[in-house]
Amino acid sequence: MKCQRKKTIKDKHKNIKTIGLFIFKIKFTLYNLLTITPATATTAEEPIISIVYTQENASQWAGIENRLQAIGVKYCVISLDSVKSAADWGDRPVLFLPNVESVSPAQAIALEEWMRNGGRLIASGPVGGSSAPGVRQLLQSLLGGYWGFSLDSPQKLQPLSEITRNLNSPDELLGTVRGGVMIPNTVASQTAAVWDAQDKLPAVLTTERSTLLGWRWGVDAASGIQTDTAWLKAALKRHLRKFSIYMNRVPGGSQNCSTSVVATTPPTSRTPPTPPPQITATAPQPRPLPIPNITFPHSDEAIDQLEQRVRLDVEPKSNAPISRNEAIALQQQLENLIGRVESAHLAAAIHNGNSQVSKAQQTQFASIKSGAPVQSTEQVLTQAREVAKNLPQLIAQKQYAQARSNWVMAKNSLWQQFPVDQKLAQPEIRAIWLDRGTIVRAGSEKGLAAIFDRLAQAGFNTVFFETVNSSYTIYPSQVAPQQNPLTRGWDPLASAVKLAHQRGMELHAWVWVFAAGNQRHNQILKLAPNYPGPVLAAHPDWAGYDNRGQMIPPGQSKPFFDPANPEVRQYLLQLYEEIVTRYQVDGIQLDYIRYPFQDPSAGRTYGYGKAARAKFQQLTGVDPVNISPSQRELWQKWTEFRTQQVNSFVAQASEHLRAKRPNLILSVAVFPLPEQERIQKIQQHWEVWARQGDIDIVIPMTYAQDTLRFERLAQPWIASSKLGSTLLVPGIRLLSLPTIGAFDQIQLVRDLPISGYALFAAENFNNELHTVFSRTQGREQGRQKEPIPSRQPFAAAASRYHALLREWKFVSQNDELKLSAIAAADFNTQAEVLQSALNQLAAEPSAGKLVAAKASLARFQFQFRVWMRSQSVANPYQVKAWENRLVAIERLLRYGKRTAGF
């Protein structure tokens, strides 16, 4: 096959007859591709693709339209400025973003929702490259990768078989193009074309619902018209072949279409049009049950604002200087990722029981993850170690761009090597928040059963079921004024308890505590924006206020109860008592157990409810509305007063509910801000609740877009000595997080001294995640059910230690454990003694057996550091991971002592 370089836009006026035949062939092919019969040919008049117009691609619009007209398919033009919601992306099945680099957070979230409704996305160029970090990450997740760096010179495209099947003439996909290297970042990413150079770097990426072209489509200086049209045709066929008819609208989309064009003549040069203002069409008839498919955010302040997310970007082609501290951090990150990959493989190996089988499976799986040449895990690890080793030298030579490029490529290669097709999980808390939106969309017990089947298959053992939200209960309540209008007619909580228990899962009722309403929920229910929720509407004196007298603080969307109001507290306790006595829930999770976010230094404070003001004035003689942060002593008393209202309610709820259900597990979802900053901003002092034993599990919402940031958020609490015997379970947010990124964070959790993780939320638990989780932690037929650490801490401790023993034996059998014969004998003896003590405690718990197990563990931990001195030199990460897992066992014993009452 030869590249057809001469067929570019410069000679498009030559040989009109040939072009006419070419267009006829394309149109004929498209008709056959899309299974259009003469009887349904009129459907072809409907646009099947929307093209996004923005000021960024306005100068390129003549070339873009020339190519679109050459294809001969009708299209709509959507102005990016008109997009505010998912509906604004239109109801065509395919959306094309040609060279769009600036996308707002709201537009990115809307795009994700539009795709979740069934839309398919084609994009070209460095998509979102000029957007906020959180937006870039979300777009990367939707597209399965991103533009890594530009090529220095034009290169030939080399299509792979996946995409060449989509055209009758694969030769049309060849061409010499000036573009960039695409970096895949999900396990579902497929490389559809590579640059025909020595390294065969990715040029086109695909996922089930997207295609990303690695050049600026429609720009003559980047690519010719024939290459561009061939690739767009291939992408269109790829995304439309699953449609049974030519046109299948995306549910919920509007008829947004600034212009609608179909070309039947050869392309000619045109002035770039400015799409006219959007005209609101006649409102369609409402559906019988209008349940919008939207994202229900967990927190306005820290999570809902994409532009506020923190991500540690490494731009491959940036030649900005790298400081010494940055160099150390980059090197350490890479070495830790190498350690996590090795640790995951070791865990997978002991589940397989045979190192050779394990390695064969790993290589086989690696070969299908991308179109790049297959490399073994050992090859990738060796190369990554070399990159980490050479980073300081490159930086010393001021080769900053090369250092960054090497780092990014090594990271992505390592991510591809995680054994995501093998069982490797130890007994742990695997929790997921089942959000209100997903419950509403389930619509019935049958719909909910499908969700629980899916979660059970993926290995989850704990579900936080959203039960009270914005003062609405998900179930028909005799205490709360209203059930959520979107769940009336059935009892989702009763169904959830039954379905979870049938599948061996725990069901914890997730309740909003002091957040009393939600403007977003008002919009869904078509209520007034400032409606405070059904409880505050009936009891306005129960509300809290800011220092300006507003119930909802500026920039936020939720009114809050006054925690100092005794009637509020009594109402909430009665509500939670109803839940734990009417339903056999296994636990209660307290969310929004705080005040709204404040900034005292900027004069934005909260907590001035009627009851709070009266109580504080009674205690101090001063109305808190009359004091300011500059009055340090009084302000500190006011802060302590509000903090104590939250602390005392947690203690009161714990005592009250456990009197009703002694085996109830109480958990809290909290912010991972530094302790004193958190007290000043939201009066949430959860270390006190943990230390006093008021709660069983603390879940810091350590939501981050990269593993390093996640670790930095979680580490202070992992190392904290202020949590008493309470278990720590970090939260991981799935929205905009690539699947392999989520897996990487979970692998880090498994190598730290903690007993599990919680995922937010079920709404974002997609098919790709389900596949990976089912393979790595899903239930195995015929195997005994694993203990849940929060419910069976002693059994979980014994089981987790047994997994450690198997790893040590596996490493020893492969001659990789650096111990002398005498040390090895001593190690094995002490390891067996500890196993026996833990097994006895798990079989028949008693105070005496717990003392014996703790003593044996303490001795073993002390000796372990001595035994592993040489091993630490060879593999420091793995030794530290083993030490961490011993600490996790120690913490399970401490937690078990409290819950067992020893």
TrEMBL record:
Disordered: annotated segments: 255-289
Stretches with biased composition (Low complexity): 259-268
Domain spans labelled Glycosyl hydrolase-like: 428-732
Alphabetical keyword list: Signal
Pfam family, one: GHL10
Signal peptide: none
Compositional bias (Pro residues): 269-278
Protein name: Glycosyl hydrolase-like 10 domain-containing protein
